[in-house]
């Protein structure tokens, strides 16, 4: 879970501390703004997380990713809160810092804040998801866009111990099971529904609808 966003203090400092307490009590790894953490899975995979929000510096990105590698992270995910709200296209700043993160050694860049899907990009063999939209977002009962996606990216440990990413699977979803309002209960799109292809088009950059 990333806590680097503009909603973490919607319920004040007490709400923020309560969120961290509940995550700790339930063994859910989280990362705070401009900080890092390492989560170790049951199989022993060491996943490094780095998060930042809005005010990026390339030196911070490089230093934090290097720090995670030094701590033994085998896969590094950068969670960046950025971009223009409601825009289906990423901007130059997003691309610049996403590429910088991959160049510095990140394996996955996962963006959020626009509240809609933006393009995904393969860069130097690594995946960038500029925005994966909403999943269960309580800030809007009637959003203008209900499309989202669950992304599964395979992580493979080779026989020699090295770790790499593998097959990518995109699961198009609608963020509400109620078509008239957001009930915070995401459901899968069937392949026959219009929304299924629309989600894929948004992630590929083929979508031509209005922002």
Describe the fold and architecture:
By secondary structure, the chain is of the alpha/beta class. It has 4 helices and 9 strands; from the N terminus they run H-E-E-H-E-H-E-E-E-E-E-E-H. Strands 1-2-3-4-6-5 form a 6-stranded mixed β-sheet, covered by helices on one side. A 3-stranded antiparallel β-sheet has the order 7-8-9. Strand 5 (120-123) and strand 6 (126-129) form a beta hairpin. Helix 2 (58-70) packs parallel to helix 3. The longest helix is centred in the N-terminal third of the chain and has 14 residues, at 12-25. The protein is globular, with a radius of gyration of 17 Å.
Quick take:
With 211 residues, the protein is α/β, with parallel strands linked by helices. Strand 3, helix 3 and strand 4 form a beta-alpha-beta unit. Helix 2 runs parallel beside helix 3.
- Spans of at least 5 consecutive residues with low confidence: none
The amount of helix comes to 10-25%
Order of helices and strands: HEEHEHEEEEEEH
What is the averaged pLDDT score? 95
Count of alpha and pi helical runs: 4
In angstroms, what separates the terminal alpha carbons? Answer: 27 Å
- Write down how many β-strands occur, each being a DSSP E stretch of 2 or more residues: 9
* Share of residues in strands: 25-35%
- Rg is 17 Å
Biggest pleated-sheet summary: 6 strands, mixed
Draw up the topology in text.
Blueprint: H1 12-25, E1 35-40, E2 46-53, H2 58-70, E3 75-81, H3 92-104, E4 108-112, E5 120-123, E6 126-129, E7 147-157, E8 163-174, E9 187-188, H4 194-204
Parallel strand pairs: 2-3, 3-4, 4-6
Antiparallel strand pairs: 1-2, 5-6, 7-8, 8-9
Helix pairs in contact: 2-3
């Amino acid at each position: 879970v990333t806590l680097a966003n503009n909603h973490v203090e919607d319920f004040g400092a007490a709400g923020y501390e309560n969120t961290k307490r509940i995550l700790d009590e339930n063994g859910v790894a989280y990362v705070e703004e401009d900080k890092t953490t390492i989560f170790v899975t049951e199989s022993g995979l060491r996943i490094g997380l780095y998060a930042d929000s809005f005010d990026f510096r390339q030196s911070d990105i490089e230093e934090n990713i290097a720090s995670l590698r030094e701590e033994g992270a085998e896969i590094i995910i950068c969670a960046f809160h950025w971009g223009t709200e409601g825009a289906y296209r990423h901007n130059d700043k997003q691309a610049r810092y996403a590429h910088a993160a991959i160049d510095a050694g990140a394996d996955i860049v996962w963006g959020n804040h626009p509240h809609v899907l933006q393009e995904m990009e393969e860069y130097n063999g690594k995946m960038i998801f500029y925005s994966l939209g909403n999943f269960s977002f309580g800030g809007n009962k009637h959003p203008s866009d209900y499309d989202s996606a669950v992304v599964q990216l395979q992580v493979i440990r080779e026989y020699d111990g090295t770790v790499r990413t593998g097959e990518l699977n995109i699961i198009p979803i609608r963020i509400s099971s109620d078509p008239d309002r957001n009930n915070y209960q995401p459901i899968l799109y069937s392949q026959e529904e219009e929304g299924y292809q629309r989600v894929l088009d948004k992630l590929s950059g083929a979508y031509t609808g209005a922002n």
